[in-house]
Amino acid sequence: MKTIAVLTSGGDAPGMNAALRAVVRMAIYKGIRVMGVQRGYSGLINGELFEMDRRSVSDIIHKGGTILRTARCEEFKTPEGREKAANVLRVFGIDGLVVIGGDGSFTGAQYLSEMGIATVGIPGTIDNDLPYTEYAIGFDTALNTVLDAINKIRDTSSSHERISVVEVMGRNCGDIALHAGIGGGAEKVIIPEKGYEIDDLCKTIFEGKLRGKMHNLIILAEGVGGANELAKEIEEITGIESRATILGHIQRGGSPSAFDRMLASRMGVAAVEVLMEGKSGRVIGMRDGKIIDEDINTALAMPRKLDEELYEISKILSY
Prior knowledge:
The chain is of the alpha/beta class. The protein has two domains: 3-138 and 256-301, Rossmann fold (3-Layer(aba) Sandwich), CATH 3.40.50; 140-253, Phosphofructokinase domain (Rossmann fold, 3-Layer(aba) Sandwich). Helix content is 43%, strand content 18%. It has helices at residues 16-29, 40-45, 79-91, 103-114, 139-160, 175-183, 198-210, 227-238, 258-276, 296-301, 308-317, and strands at 3-8, 33-37, 49-52, 96-101, 118-123, 163-168, 188-190, 216-221, 242-246, 282-287, 290-295. The protein has a seven-stranded mixed β-sheet with strand order 3-2-1-4-5-10-11, with helices on both faces. It has a four-stranded parallel β-sheet with strand order 7-8-6-9, with helices on both faces. The longest helix has 22 residues, at 139-160.
């Protein structure tokens, strides 16, 4: 393994820069040349590669986003686009590729692996929707961003005796909503894996009012529906003033938490080690607090399971 390349792809996540830093410095420490790919697979197809050294990743561990930038690439979804990308890697003499991103990015790495390119993926997505790993880089930071917002929203919701519906990210995965709902003391957590019945929700609100509850905080995962529509429906049924807050892309930004910096650093080092061992088509993850590598085909085929125990805890604590 003489030369490797690294790219960030898909939605950005806090901690991507920390992972990039670890990959570059670990590789150089082992005597391996590193090429950075700008703008993900789009930049790979267009040959946007440049050599990186230790200084290239100085003072970035605390920064959100990704200094390599990221972009969606429709061309890469075609066989012709993937062949272009593979040819660029060959032209630059790349022996291995590290891909930092989510499931879509991993699918791209899977294709390249099947074309004979040594690849390894590092999970970077705030959604935490990759079932083979307990945590993805960015999830913890996004969760803390949501909790900070919830604390502020609760203050004004309590003052006005309102119902606040807070919509969080996660696509079809309810991890952000579930963890934020428990950590933020929400009265109701609505996630795609379980859904909800509006009559049951409003009944819970009425019962809380009879017990003297003066406000309600509802956490809604974006994969279930829209916060504005839900807030309007709740107000029409209960007669209680309801407001919606959509946190949006604020969840993707900000300085990564200590947990995400540590996770990214450990995973970045592990990715280089996997390539040095001659492995290909692998993804890095965490299980039981330990860093592992898994076959990419197995990882992408794993069904995602909701933590039922955690969901039950959310219901018990919101009673």
